[in-house]
């Protein structure tokens, strides 16, 4: 089961959430395994049926004001039972005053407490988004990811087939490089595949015969981007004589990545073919398809209508004669 530690959570989110650690370090190696948070209003009232004890617990104005209205003894009893569930950590919103009893019980149970100046809704949304990103299925592959006309196109193919050269031509034509060679893919909660560049390679590209080139320095900051949603996949392969390549596009081919099926184009390479232009057209065609325009099907329907019209005309002429 995937998890992250409280240490990683704190280091990653302390600036975003404006977190401040309260009291001793406690057990910062606790594991977060659930990508949701919980506001324990009913639990603090003593109702623990369906209590989401494996989640980060967020205490807002309602929870803190309720605890403040209790006697010290009652408050400590409730908080001791609350902390017996041993959840990952507690985040207190709006820099609200934290009851001493909560600090004492949390210290005894080694449960970390953090304080934030943000509202409960902002904290919940930020943590949930962060955890979903951390727990999303991921994959690292070899290829080239480009942003062409706003469409994220993942270019695949054997080593030496010309992926980087094709990407270079696309960059010269005004499109943007996300990553070359190493691409980190992650499936989001919305079932979208996001491709990111490698922090090591970044915006560099290897071109056989030239070596390593820096795309940002050569073409400018506008020629690169850090990430992009992958919308289509183009696989380059050497032209195979007598192979039946798709010429009509009536049946959309797909490619599976991270349990998602994306439109897939198999493009054969041979002298005289401008692959960069073909990829531009594939991306433009994908934009049309998203608007409900299918060029191949439109042509097929037009031809069928023409044939039907011709058949009717021939039938009428036959009857009249």
Textual characterization of the structure:
The chain is elongated. The protein folds into 2 domains: 131 residues, 3-Layer(aba) Sandwich (Udp-n-acetylmuramoylalanyl-d-glutamate--2,6- Diaminopimelate Ligase, Chain: A, domain 1), CATH 3.40.1390; 162 residues, P-loop containing nucleotide triphosphate hydrolases (Rossmann fold), CATH 3.40.50. It has 321 residues and is of the alpha/beta class. It has 10 helices and 16 strands. Strand 6, helix 5 and strand 7 form a beta-alpha-beta unit. The strands form 4 sheets. Strands 2-7-6-5-4 form a 5-stranded mixed beta sheet. It has a 5-stranded mixed β-barrel with strand order 8-9-14-11-10. The longest helix is centred in the C-terminal third of the chain and has 26 residues.
Average the pLDDT over all residues and give the rounded result.
Answer: 91
Largest sheet: 5 strands, mixed
Q: And the CATH topology of the largest domain?
A: Rossmann fold
What coarse outline follows from CA principal-axis ratios?
A: elongated
CATH class of the largest domain: Alpha Beta
Spatial strand sequence of the major β-sheet:
2-7-6-5-4
Percent helix among the residues? Answer: 25-40%
Contiguous runs where pLDDT drops below 50 for at least 5 residues: none
CATH superfamily (homologous) name of the largest domain: P-loop containing nucleotide triphosphate hydrolases
Beta-sheet strand percentage? Answer: 25-35%
């Amino acid at each position: 089961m995937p998890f992250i530690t409280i240490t990683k959570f704190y280091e990653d989110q302390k600036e975003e959430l404006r977190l401040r650690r309260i009291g001793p370090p406690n057990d910062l190696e606790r594991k977060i395994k659930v990508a949701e948070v919980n506001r324990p209003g009913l639990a603090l009232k003593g109702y623990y049926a369906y209590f989401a004890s494996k989640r980060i617990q967020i205490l807002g104005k309602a929870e803190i004001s309720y605890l403040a209205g209790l006697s010290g003894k009652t408050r400590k009893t409730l908080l001791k039972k609350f902390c017996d569930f041993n959840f990952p950590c507690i985040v207190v919103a709006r820099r609200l005053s934290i009851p001493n009893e909560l600090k004492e019980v949390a210290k005894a149970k080694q449960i970390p407490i953090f304080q934030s100046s943000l509202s409960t809704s902002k904290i919940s949304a930020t943590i949930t988004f962060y955890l979903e990103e951390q727990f999303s299925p991921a994959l690292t592959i070899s290829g080239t990811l480009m942003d062409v006309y706003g469409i994220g196109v993942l270019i695949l193919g054997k080593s030496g087939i010309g992926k980087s050269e094709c990407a270079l031509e696309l960059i010269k034509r005004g499109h943007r490089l996300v990553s070359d060679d190493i691409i980190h893919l992650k499936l989001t909660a919305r079932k979208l595949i996001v491709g990111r560049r490698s922090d090591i390679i970044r915006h560099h590209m290897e071109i056989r015969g030239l070596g390593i080139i820096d795309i940002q320095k050569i073409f400018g900051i506008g020629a690169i981007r850090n990430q992009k949603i992958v919308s289509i996949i183009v696989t380059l392969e050497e032209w195979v004589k007598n192979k039946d390549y798709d010429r009509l596009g009536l049946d959309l081919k797909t490619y599976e990545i991270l349990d998602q099926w994306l439109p897939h184009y198999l493009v054969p390479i041979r002298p005289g073919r401008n692959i960069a232009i073909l990829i531009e057209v594939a991306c433009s065609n994908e934009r049309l398809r998203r608007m409900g325009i299918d060029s191949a099907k439109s042509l097929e329907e037009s031809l069928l209508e023409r044939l039907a019209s011709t058949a009717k005309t021939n039938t009428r002429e036959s009857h009249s004669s």
